[in-house]
Amino acid sequence: KGVVLRFLPEQELQQISPSRGRNITQAKTDAEGKFEAFTYKQGDGAPPGRYKIIMTQPGRGASWGGNRQGRDRIDGKYSDPDETEMTAVVREDAEGPVVLEPFYLEIEFE
Fold first, then answer.
1. Looking at residue 58, what DSSP letter applies?
2. Fewer CB atoms near the end CB (10 Å): N or C, the chain?
3. Beta-carbon count within 10 A of 9 CB
4. 8: β partners
5. How far apart (Å, rounded) are the C-alpha atoms in residues 84 and 8?
6. Burial readout 56-68 (b: 16 or more C-beta within 10 A, e: otherwise)
7. CA angle in degrees (0–180, nearest 5) for 83-28-55
């Protein structure tokens, strides 16, 4: 029931045709909204760079990390990379986990 986050490299978003087949850094929040991002395997984090972060909450029957996302329960409100204000920076010289400022989402559930 968590929110899926995808970290999109800003550098690639500025290109006309971003590279295909590239592993995208992603995460899924726990019940408290906490997450640990990974790119290739659990626990490896994100490569250094500047990221735009998009979020979705896959509906019933969706598969985490797979192609079946189902209906986005937050109606795409945070899934547009051109509109998102959520960003992250992973510095080349970062030692240990990078802690991001909290994201506050305006979501109404029925």
1. B
2. C
3. 19
4. 52
5. 11
6. bbbeeebeeeeee
7. 10
* β-strand pairing of 25-28 with 49-56: unpaired
Average pLDDT over residues 20-48: 86
R_g of the chain, CA atoms, integer Å: 14
67 contacts: CB under 8 Å, gap ≥ 6: none
pLDDT tens for residues 52-103?
Answer: 999 988 776 555 555 555 677 777 778 888 888 889 999 888 787 888 888 8
SS3 label, residue 5: strand
What is the residue type of 42?
Q
Run of H or E including 9: strand 4-9
In angstroms, rounded to a whole number, what is the distance separating the alpha carbons of residues 106 and 78? 10
- Of 47, 65, 44, the closest CA to residue 56 belongs to 65
How wide is the angle at C-alpha 6 spanned by C-alphas 81 and 33, nearest 5°? 115
What average pLDDT is seen over the chain? 79
